Protein backbone atom coordinates (compact mmCIF):
# COMPACT_ATOMS: atom_id res chain seq x y z
CA UNK A 1 0.00 0.00 0.00
CA UNK A 2 1.45 3.32 -0.97
CA UNK A 3 1.98 5.33 2.23
CA UNK A 4 1.50 9.01 1.47
CA UNK A 5 3.69 11.19 3.66
CA UNK A 6 3.61 14.95 4.23
CA UNK A 7 6.56 17.25 4.90
CA UNK A 8 7.09 17.75 8.62
CA UNK A 9 7.01 21.50 7.88
CA UNK A 10 3.24 21.02 8.04
CA UNK A 11 3.38 19.84 11.67
CA UNK A 12 2.98 23.31 13.31
CA UNK A 13 -0.16 23.97 11.23
CA UNK A 14 -1.54 20.53 12.16
CA UNK A 15 -0.79 21.21 15.84
CA UNK A 16 -2.49 24.60 15.72
CA UNK A 17 -5.57 23.19 13.99
CA UNK A 18 -5.91 20.59 16.76
CA UNK A 19 -5.20 22.94 19.67
CA UNK A 20 -1.84 21.52 20.68
CA UNK A 21 -0.08 24.25 22.67
CA UNK A 22 3.67 24.71 22.18
CA UNK A 23 5.17 26.98 24.81
CA UNK A 24 8.58 28.33 23.80
CA UNK A 25 9.54 25.18 21.88
CA UNK A 26 9.16 23.98 18.31
CA UNK A 27 9.96 21.01 16.11
CA UNK A 28 13.24 21.09 14.26
CA UNK A 29 15.68 18.79 12.47
CA UNK A 30 18.27 17.28 14.84
CA UNK A 31 21.40 15.80 13.24
CA UNK A 32 21.27 11.98 13.10
CA UNK A 33 18.05 11.83 15.16
CA UNK A 34 15.48 12.95 12.57
CA UNK A 35 13.18 15.58 14.02
CA UNK A 36 13.11 16.71 17.64
CA UNK A 37 11.90 19.47 19.96
CA UNK A 38 14.01 22.57 20.50
CA UNK A 39 13.72 25.63 22.76
CA UNK A 40 12.99 28.78 20.75
CA UNK A 41 11.96 31.32 23.39
CA UNK A 42 11.83 31.84 27.11
CA UNK A 43 9.07 29.98 28.94
CA UNK A 44 7.12 31.11 31.97
CA UNK A 45 8.28 29.16 34.98
CA UNK A 46 6.29 25.97 35.63
CA UNK A 47 4.16 26.37 32.48
CA UNK A 48 4.00 23.15 30.48
CA UNK A 49 6.33 23.13 27.47
CA UNK A 50 3.55 21.45 25.53
CA UNK A 51 -0.09 20.58 26.12
CA UNK A 52 -1.87 17.96 24.02
CA UNK A 53 -5.68 17.89 24.43
CA UNK A 54 -6.97 14.65 25.90
CA UNK A 55 -9.05 13.70 22.85
CA UNK A 56 -5.82 13.64 20.81
CA UNK A 57 -4.30 10.94 23.02
CA UNK A 58 -4.57 7.72 21.06
CA UNK A 59 -5.29 5.02 23.63
CA UNK A 60 -7.26 1.77 23.66
CA UNK A 61 -10.29 3.68 24.95
CA UNK A 62 -9.97 6.43 22.32
CA UNK A 63 -9.78 3.89 19.48
CA UNK A 64 -13.09 2.35 20.60
CA UNK A 65 -14.62 5.84 20.87
CA UNK A 66 -13.63 6.48 17.24
CA UNK A 67 -15.14 3.09 16.34
CA UNK A 68 -18.60 4.19 17.50
CA UNK A 69 -18.82 6.54 14.52
CA UNK A 70 -16.51 4.74 12.11
CA UNK A 71 -18.11 1.58 10.73
CA UNK A 72 -14.99 0.36 8.90
CA UNK A 73 -12.85 0.64 12.00
CA UNK A 74 -15.51 -1.04 14.13
CA UNK A 75 -15.84 -3.97 11.74
CA UNK A 76 -12.13 -4.73 11.87
CA UNK A 77 -11.88 -4.27 15.64
CA UNK A 78 -14.80 -6.61 16.20
CA UNK A 79 -13.49 -9.18 13.74
CA UNK A 80 -10.15 -9.27 15.60
CA UNK A 81 -11.76 -10.18 18.96
CA UNK A 82 -9.50 -10.10 22.04
CA UNK A 83 -6.55 -8.82 20.02
CA UNK A 84 -8.40 -5.50 19.56
CA UNK A 85 -9.02 -5.26 23.32
CA UNK A 86 -5.32 -4.62 24.00
CA UNK A 87 -3.79 -1.15 23.58
CA UNK A 88 -1.30 -2.32 20.99
CA UNK A 89 -3.82 -4.37 19.00
CA UNK A 90 -6.44 -1.60 18.89
CA UNK A 91 -3.91 1.11 18.02
CA UNK A 92 -2.26 -0.94 15.24
CA UNK A 93 -5.69 -1.57 13.68
CA UNK A 94 -6.53 2.13 13.99
CA UNK A 95 -3.23 3.11 12.32
CA UNK A 96 -3.70 0.66 9.46
CA UNK A 97 -7.17 2.16 8.88
CA UNK A 98 -5.65 5.67 8.68
CA UNK A 99 -2.99 4.44 6.24
CA UNK A 100 -5.69 2.75 4.16
CA UNK A 101 -7.86 5.89 4.17
CA UNK A 102 -4.93 7.92 2.86
CA UNK A 103 -4.01 5.35 0.22
CA UNK A 104 -7.51 4.91 -1.21
CA UNK A 105 -8.50 8.54 -1.31
CA UNK A 106 -7.26 8.93 -4.90
CA UNK A 107 -9.89 9.61 -7.55
CA UNK A 108 -9.33 6.26 -9.26
CA UNK A 109 -10.11 4.39 -6.05
CA UNK A 110 -13.50 2.78 -5.54
CA UNK A 111 -14.43 4.33 -2.21
CA UNK A 112 -13.03 5.77 0.97
CA UNK A 113 -12.25 3.63 3.96
CA UNK A 114 -12.88 5.01 7.43
CA UNK A 115 -13.70 8.50 8.60
CA UNK A 116 -11.11 11.28 8.48
CA UNK A 117 -9.91 12.39 11.88
CA UNK A 118 -6.94 14.21 13.38
CA UNK A 119 -4.78 11.10 13.08
CA UNK A 120 -5.47 10.55 9.39
CA UNK A 121 -3.11 13.38 8.50
CA UNK A 122 -0.92 12.92 11.59
CA UNK A 123 0.29 9.53 10.38
CA UNK A 124 1.34 11.24 7.15
CA UNK A 125 3.57 13.58 9.16
CA UNK A 126 5.48 10.71 10.76
CA UNK A 127 8.91 9.83 9.28
CA UNK A 128 8.92 7.96 6.00
CA UNK A 129 11.49 5.48 7.36
CA UNK A 130 11.98 3.80 10.72
CA UNK A 131 15.48 2.71 11.80
CA UNK A 132 14.31 -0.29 13.84
CA UNK A 133 15.73 -3.71 12.88
CA UNK A 134 12.45 -5.12 11.48
CA UNK A 135 13.25 -2.82 8.54
CA UNK A 136 16.94 -3.72 8.23
CA UNK A 137 17.78 -5.77 5.14
CA UNK A 138 19.00 -9.38 5.50
CA UNK A 139 22.67 -8.33 5.27
CA UNK A 140 22.22 -5.74 8.01
CA UNK A 141 20.30 -8.20 10.18
CA UNK A 142 23.21 -10.65 9.86
CA UNK A 143 25.35 -8.18 11.86
CA UNK A 144 23.23 -9.11 14.87
CA UNK A 145 24.13 -12.82 14.78
CA UNK A 146 25.25 -13.90 18.24
CA UNK A 147 23.54 -11.01 20.03
CA UNK A 148 20.35 -11.45 22.05
CA UNK A 149 18.67 -9.17 19.51
CA UNK A 150 19.01 -11.81 16.77
CA UNK A 151 16.58 -14.16 18.57
CA UNK A 152 14.28 -11.30 19.63
CA UNK A 153 14.10 -10.01 16.05
CA UNK A 154 13.41 -13.45 14.68
CA UNK A 155 10.60 -13.97 17.19
CA UNK A 156 9.18 -10.50 16.44
CA UNK A 157 9.11 -11.07 12.68
CA UNK A 158 7.36 -14.39 13.23
CA UNK A 159 4.78 -12.87 15.55
CA UNK A 160 4.14 -9.97 13.12
CA UNK A 161 3.64 -12.55 10.40
CA UNK A 162 1.14 -14.44 12.56
CA UNK A 163 -0.72 -11.20 13.34
CA UNK A 164 -0.88 -10.27 9.66
CA UNK A 165 -2.22 -13.73 8.79
CA UNK A 166 -4.90 -13.51 11.47
CA UNK A 167 -5.88 -10.04 10.23
CA UNK A 168 -6.36 -11.57 6.79
CA UNK A 169 -8.27 -14.58 8.11
CA UNK A 170 -10.53 -12.46 10.33
CA UNK A 171 -11.37 -9.78 7.75
CA UNK A 172 -11.36 -11.46 4.37
CA UNK A 173 -15.16 -11.95 4.57
CA UNK A 174 -15.74 -8.22 5.12
CA UNK A 175 -16.46 -6.93 1.59
CA UNK A 176 -14.44 -3.67 1.75
CA UNK A 177 -11.46 -5.45 3.39
CA UNK A 178 -11.53 -8.11 0.69
CA UNK A 179 -11.67 -5.46 -2.05
CA UNK A 180 -9.14 -2.99 -0.61
CA UNK A 181 -6.73 -5.24 1.27
CA UNK A 182 -6.78 -8.83 0.08
CA UNK A 183 -8.16 -9.19 -3.46
CA UNK A 184 -5.36 -10.26 -5.86
CA UNK A 185 -6.20 -7.40 -8.26
CA UNK A 186 -7.70 -4.59 -6.19
CA UNK A 187 -6.23 -5.28 -2.75
CA UNK A 188 -2.79 -3.97 -1.82
CA UNK A 189 -2.21 -4.35 1.90
CA UNK A 190 1.23 -5.90 2.43
CA UNK A 191 3.26 -7.30 5.31
CA UNK A 192 5.44 -4.17 5.04
CA UNK A 193 2.38 -2.03 5.86
CA UNK A 194 1.84 -4.10 9.00
CA UNK A 195 5.52 -3.77 9.96
CA UNK A 196 5.16 -0.01 9.43
CA UNK A 197 2.27 0.41 11.88
CA UNK A 198 4.09 -1.80 14.38
CA UNK A 199 7.16 0.47 13.99
CA UNK A 200 5.07 3.62 14.47
CA UNK A 201 3.61 2.23 17.66
CA UNK A 202 6.76 0.64 19.07
CA UNK A 203 9.07 3.58 18.51
CA UNK A 204 6.56 6.31 19.47
CA UNK A 205 4.11 4.99 22.09
CA UNK A 206 4.45 6.20 25.67
CA UNK A 207 3.27 4.79 28.97
CA UNK A 208 1.27 7.88 29.89
CA UNK A 209 0.43 8.13 33.61
CA UNK A 210 -3.30 7.55 34.11
CA UNK A 211 -3.86 6.40 30.52
CA UNK A 212 -1.38 3.61 29.85
CA UNK A 213 0.24 2.75 26.55
CA UNK A 214 -0.81 5.37 24.07
CA UNK A 215 0.43 7.59 21.26
CA UNK A 216 0.59 11.28 22.04
CA UNK A 217 1.01 13.42 18.91
CA UNK A 218 3.76 16.06 19.09
CA UNK A 219 5.14 14.83 22.44
CA UNK A 220 6.20 11.83 20.35
CA UNK A 221 8.65 14.10 18.56
CA UNK A 222 10.78 14.29 21.73
CA UNK A 223 14.03 12.35 21.36
CA UNK A 224 15.62 10.31 24.14
CA UNK A 225 18.40 11.20 26.56
CA UNK A 226 19.05 9.26 29.77
CA UNK A 227 20.15 10.20 33.28
CA UNK A 228 20.94 13.84 33.98
CA UNK A 229 20.66 14.64 30.28
CA UNK A 230 16.87 14.13 30.32
CA UNK A 231 15.36 17.60 30.07
CA UNK A 232 11.62 16.98 30.34
CA UNK A 233 9.00 14.48 31.45
CA UNK A 234 5.45 13.75 30.36
CA UNK A 235 2.45 13.73 32.64
CA UNK A 236 -1.33 13.93 32.62
CA UNK A 237 -2.81 17.16 33.99
CA UNK A 238 -5.93 17.34 36.15
CA UNK A 239 -8.13 17.70 33.03
CA UNK A 240 -6.69 14.56 31.43
CA UNK A 241 -4.53 16.40 28.86
CA UNK A 242 -0.98 15.21 28.21
CA UNK A 243 1.66 17.73 29.22
CA UNK A 244 5.41 17.99 28.70
CA UNK A 245 7.09 19.51 31.75
CA UNK A 246 10.59 20.73 32.44
CA UNK A 247 12.37 18.46 34.91
CA UNK A 248 13.38 19.95 38.25
CA UNK A 249 16.92 21.25 38.10
CA UNK A 250 16.94 21.73 34.33
CA UNK A 251 17.14 25.13 32.68
CA UNK A 252 15.94 26.24 29.31
CA UNK A 253 18.27 28.01 26.93
CA UNK A 254 17.47 28.86 23.31
CA UNK A 255 18.57 26.05 21.01
CA UNK A 256 18.49 23.41 23.77
CA UNK A 257 16.99 20.10 22.62
CA UNK A 258 14.05 19.00 24.79
CA UNK A 259 14.56 15.33 25.48
CA UNK A 260 12.60 12.79 27.50
CA UNK A 261 13.64 9.33 28.67
CA UNK A 262 12.32 6.24 26.89
CA UNK A 263 13.33 4.25 30.00
CA UNK A 264 16.81 4.52 31.51
CA UNK A 265 16.55 0.94 32.73
CA UNK A 266 16.07 -0.48 29.24
CA UNK A 267 18.84 -2.71 27.97
CA UNK A 268 20.89 -2.06 24.84
CA UNK A 269 19.04 -4.84 23.04
CA UNK A 270 15.63 -3.37 23.81
CA UNK A 271 16.71 0.15 22.84
CA UNK A 272 17.96 -0.99 19.45
CA UNK A 273 14.96 -3.29 18.99
CA UNK A 274 12.30 -0.70 19.80
CA UNK A 275 13.93 2.59 18.76
CA UNK A 276 16.70 1.72 16.33
CA UNK A 277 19.57 3.52 18.07
CA UNK A 278 21.96 3.28 21.01
CA UNK A 279 22.94 6.32 22.99
CA UNK A 280 26.63 7.16 22.68
CA UNK A 281 26.89 7.41 26.46
CA UNK A 282 25.61 3.84 26.96
CA UNK A 283 28.45 2.07 28.79
CA UNK A 284 26.66 -1.15 29.78
CA UNK A 285 24.19 -3.46 28.07
CA UNK A 286 22.11 -3.02 31.29
CA UNK A 287 20.24 -6.24 30.71
CA UNK A 288 20.11 -9.18 28.37
CA UNK A 289 17.62 -12.02 27.92
CA UNK A 290 18.72 -15.52 26.89
CA UNK A 291 16.39 -18.36 26.00
CA UNK A 292 16.78 -21.84 27.46
CA UNK A 293 15.52 -25.22 26.42
CA UNK A 294 14.94 -28.29 28.56
CA UNK A 295 17.48 -30.97 27.54
CA UNK A 296 16.09 -33.77 25.35
CA UNK A 297 17.22 -36.42 27.84
CA UNK A 298 15.12 -34.89 30.64
CA UNK A 299 12.37 -37.52 31.15
CA UNK A 300 9.96 -34.82 32.40
CA UNK A 301 10.64 -32.39 29.52
CA UNK A 302 7.12 -32.43 28.05
CA UNK A 303 5.38 -32.15 31.42
CA UNK A 304 7.69 -29.31 32.53
CA UNK A 305 7.05 -27.37 29.34
CA UNK A 306 3.33 -27.89 29.76
CA UNK A 307 3.11 -26.51 33.29
CA UNK A 308 5.61 -23.68 33.03
CA UNK A 309 4.02 -20.24 32.83
CA UNK A 310 7.35 -18.43 32.87
CA UNK A 311 9.17 -17.40 29.69
CA UNK A 312 11.65 -20.17 28.79
CA UNK A 313 14.82 -18.31 29.58
CA UNK A 314 16.45 -15.91 32.00
CA UNK A 315 17.43 -12.27 32.25
CA UNK A 316 20.86 -11.02 33.19
CA UNK A 317 21.16 -7.48 34.47
CA UNK A 318 23.85 -5.21 35.68
CA UNK A 319 23.25 -4.53 39.38
CA UNK A 320 25.00 -1.84 41.40
CA UNK A 321 28.31 -3.64 41.29
CA UNK A 322 27.73 -7.20 40.19
CA UNK A 323 25.61 -8.97 37.63
CA UNK A 324 22.21 -10.26 38.75
CA UNK A 325 19.83 -12.71 37.12
CA UNK A 326 16.23 -13.79 37.32
CA UNK A 327 14.24 -16.51 35.58
CA UNK A 328 11.76 -18.84 37.31
CA UNK A 329 12.05 -21.26 34.37
CA UNK A 330 15.65 -22.11 35.35
CA UNK A 331 14.49 -23.83 38.56
CA UNK A 332 12.34 -26.28 36.63
CA UNK A 333 15.48 -27.41 34.82
CA UNK A 334 17.28 -28.04 38.10
CA UNK A 335 14.97 -30.63 39.66
CA UNK A 336 13.65 -34.03 38.71
CA UNK A 337 11.74 -36.99 40.03
CA UNK A 338 14.55 -38.23 42.30
CA UNK A 339 14.57 -34.77 43.98
CA UNK A 340 10.85 -34.77 44.76
CA UNK A 341 9.27 -33.34 41.59
CA UNK A 342 6.24 -35.26 40.40
CA UNK A 343 3.51 -34.87 37.80
CA UNK A 344 0.07 -36.47 38.03
CA UNK A 345 -2.84 -36.43 35.64
CA UNK A 346 -6.18 -35.93 37.39
CA UNK A 347 -9.75 -35.38 36.24
CA UNK A 348 -11.55 -32.18 37.15
CA UNK A 349 -15.26 -32.11 38.11
CA UNK A 350 -16.26 -31.51 34.49
CA UNK A 351 -14.23 -34.52 33.34
CA UNK A 352 -11.30 -32.53 31.86
CA UNK A 353 -7.86 -34.08 32.27
CA UNK A 354 -5.48 -31.87 34.24
CA UNK A 355 -1.73 -32.08 34.72
CA UNK A 356 -0.76 -31.26 38.30
CA UNK A 357 2.70 -30.66 39.75
CA UNK A 358 3.85 -31.85 43.15
CA UNK A 359 6.96 -31.01 45.13
CA UNK A 360 7.74 -33.37 48.00
CA UNK A 361 4.18 -34.70 47.68
CA UNK A 362 2.51 -31.30 48.12
CA UNK A 363 0.68 -29.86 45.16
CA UNK A 364 2.23 -26.75 43.58
CA UNK A 365 -0.68 -24.55 42.52
CA UNK A 366 1.77 -22.10 40.97
CA UNK A 367 5.04 -23.53 39.55
CA UNK A 368 6.57 -20.11 40.24
CA UNK A 369 6.61 -21.13 43.93
CA UNK A 370 9.32 -23.67 43.17
CA UNK A 371 12.08 -21.08 43.48
CA UNK A 372 11.27 -20.20 47.10
CA UNK A 373 10.68 -23.86 48.01
CA UNK A 374 14.10 -24.79 46.67
CA UNK A 375 15.69 -21.89 48.58
CA UNK A 376 14.24 -23.28 51.82
CA UNK A 377 15.12 -26.90 51.06
CA UNK A 378 18.06 -28.43 52.99
CA UNK A 379 19.54 -29.25 49.55
CA UNK A 380 19.36 -25.60 48.48
CA UNK A 381 23.12 -25.40 47.77
CA UNK A 382 22.87 -28.34 45.41
CA UNK A 383 19.99 -26.76 43.50
CA UNK A 384 21.84 -23.46 43.32
CA UNK A 385 24.90 -25.24 42.03
CA UNK A 386 22.81 -26.87 39.32
CA UNK A 387 21.28 -23.51 38.38
CA UNK A 388 24.72 -21.90 38.20
CA UNK A 389 25.91 -24.70 35.88
CA UNK A 390 22.89 -24.29 33.58
CA UNK A 391 23.41 -20.51 33.43
CA UNK A 392 27.18 -20.71 32.97
CA UNK A 393 26.79 -23.15 30.07
CA UNK A 394 24.10 -21.10 28.33
CA UNK A 395 26.21 -17.94 28.70
CA UNK A 396 29.28 -19.75 27.34
CA UNK A 397 27.23 -20.88 24.35
CA UNK A 398 26.08 -17.29 23.67
CA UNK A 399 29.61 -15.94 24.01
CA UNK A 400 30.85 -18.50 21.55
CA UNK A 401 28.12 -17.53 19.04
CA UNK A 402 29.05 -13.87 19.46
CA UNK A 403 32.78 -14.40 19.19
CA UNK A 404 32.70 -16.81 16.25
CA UNK A 405 30.50 -14.48 14.21
CA UNK A 406 32.65 -11.36 14.35
CA UNK A 407 31.65 -8.59 11.95
CA UNK A 408 34.20 -6.48 10.19
CA UNK A 409 33.81 -3.24 8.34
CA UNK A 410 34.37 -3.96 4.65
CA UNK A 411 36.37 -1.76 2.29
CA UNK A 412 33.20 -1.27 0.26
CA UNK A 413 31.41 1.90 1.38
CA UNK A 414 28.01 1.43 3.01
CA UNK A 415 25.10 1.68 0.60
CA UNK A 416 23.51 4.47 2.64
CA UNK A 417 24.23 6.67 5.64
CA UNK A 418 21.48 4.73 7.51
CA UNK A 419 23.29 1.47 6.81
CA UNK A 420 26.54 2.87 8.23
CA UNK A 421 24.62 3.91 11.38
CA UNK A 422 23.11 0.42 11.66
CA UNK A 423 26.57 -1.15 11.41
CA UNK A 424 27.80 1.15 14.17
CA UNK A 425 24.82 0.29 16.38
CA UNK A 426 25.27 -3.47 15.80
CA UNK A 427 29.00 -3.19 16.63
CA UNK A 428 28.25 -1.32 19.86
CA UNK A 429 25.56 -3.83 20.86
CA UNK A 430 27.98 -6.71 20.30
CA UNK A 431 30.60 -5.08 22.47
CA UNK A 432 28.19 -4.21 25.31
CA UNK A 433 26.64 -7.69 25.34
CA UNK A 434 30.04 -9.41 25.22
CA UNK A 435 31.18 -7.38 28.24
CA UNK A 436 28.06 -8.31 30.23
CA UNK A 437 28.30 -11.99 29.22
CA UNK A 438 31.98 -12.22 30.18
CA UNK A 439 31.26 -10.68 33.57
CA UNK A 440 28.28 -13.00 34.14
CA UNK A 441 30.29 -16.04 33.06
CA UNK A 442 33.03 -15.23 35.54
CA UNK A 443 30.44 -14.70 38.27
CA UNK A 444 28.86 -18.14 37.70
CA UNK A 445 32.28 -19.85 37.55
CA UNK A 446 33.06 -18.36 40.96
CA UNK A 447 29.65 -19.32 42.29
CA UNK A 448 30.14 -22.93 41.13
CA UNK A 449 33.56 -23.06 42.81
CA UNK A 450 32.20 -21.71 46.06
CA UNK A 451 29.28 -24.16 46.08
CA UNK A 452 31.66 -27.06 45.37
CA UNK A 453 33.48 -26.29 48.60
CA UNK A 454 30.35 -26.70 50.75
CA UNK A 455 30.17 -29.97 52.72
CA UNK A 456 26.56 -30.85 51.82
CA UNK A 457 27.47 -30.50 48.15
CA UNK A 458 30.60 -32.60 48.58
CA UNK A 459 28.63 -35.33 50.33
CA UNK A 460 26.10 -35.28 47.50
CA UNK A 461 28.84 -35.52 44.90
CA UNK A 462 30.61 -38.36 46.59
CA UNK A 463 27.31 -40.27 46.95
CA UNK A 464 26.64 -39.64 43.28
CA UNK A 465 30.10 -40.89 42.35
CA UNK A 466 29.40 -44.19 44.11
CA UNK A 467 26.36 -44.79 41.93
CA UNK A 468 26.54 -47.37 39.15
CA UNK A 469 26.64 -44.56 36.60
CA UNK A 470 28.51 -41.69 38.20
CA UNK A 471 27.69 -38.21 36.90
CA UNK A 472 30.44 -35.86 35.76
CA UNK A 473 30.67 -32.95 38.23
CA UNK A 474 29.08 -30.42 35.91
CA UNK A 475 26.33 -32.58 34.57
CA UNK A 476 23.65 -32.07 37.18
CA UNK A 477 20.94 -30.81 34.98
C1 LIG B 1 9.51 9.01 19.52
S1 LIG B 1 10.42 9.21 18.08
C2 LIG B 1 11.17 10.77 18.29
C3 LIG B 1 11.01 11.66 17.06
C4 LIG B 1 11.81 11.25 15.88
N1 LIG B 1 13.17 11.73 15.98
C5 LIG B 1 11.19 11.71 14.58
O1 LIG B 1 11.91 12.20 13.72
O2 LIG B 1 9.99 11.54 14.39
C6 LIG B 1 11.68 8.01 18.38
C7 LIG B 1 12.72 7.90 17.29
O3 LIG B 1 13.58 9.05 17.30
C8 LIG B 1 14.94 8.69 17.08
N2 LIG B 1 15.71 9.03 18.30
C9 LIG B 1 15.22 9.38 19.49
N3 LIG B 1 16.20 9.65 20.36
C10 LIG B 1 17.36 9.46 19.70
C11 LIG B 1 18.74 9.57 20.08
N4 LIG B 1 19.11 9.93 21.30
N5 LIG B 1 19.66 9.28 19.13
C12 LIG B 1 19.30 8.88 17.88
N6 LIG B 1 18.01 8.77 17.47
C13 LIG B 1 17.05 9.06 18.37
C14 LIG B 1 14.92 7.19 16.80
O4 LIG B 1 14.81 7.02 15.42
C15 LIG B 1 13.64 6.74 17.48
O5 LIG B 1 13.11 5.56 16.91
UniProtKB/TrEMBL annotation:
It comes from the Eukaryota. PROSITE patterns: SET (PS50280). Residues 23-263 form the SET domain. It comes from Heterodermia speciosa. GO terms for cellular component: nucleus. This is SET domain-containing protein. SUPFAM superfamilies: SET domain. One of its GO terms (molecular function) is protein-lysine N-methyltransferase activity.
Amino acid sequence: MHRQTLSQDALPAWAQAHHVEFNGISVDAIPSKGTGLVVTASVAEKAPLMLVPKDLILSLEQVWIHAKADRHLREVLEAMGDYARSSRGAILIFLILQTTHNAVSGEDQPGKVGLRNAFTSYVQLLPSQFPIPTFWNAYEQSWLTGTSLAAALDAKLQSLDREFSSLRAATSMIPWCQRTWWHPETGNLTFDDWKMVDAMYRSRALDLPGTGHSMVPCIDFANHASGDATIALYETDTDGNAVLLLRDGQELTPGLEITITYGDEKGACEMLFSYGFLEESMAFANELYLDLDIPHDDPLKIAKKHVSKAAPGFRLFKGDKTVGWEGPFVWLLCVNEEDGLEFKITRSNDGERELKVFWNESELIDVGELESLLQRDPRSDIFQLRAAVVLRDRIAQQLSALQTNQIEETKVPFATEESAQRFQAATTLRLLEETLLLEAHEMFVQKINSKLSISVVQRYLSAASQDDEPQPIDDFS
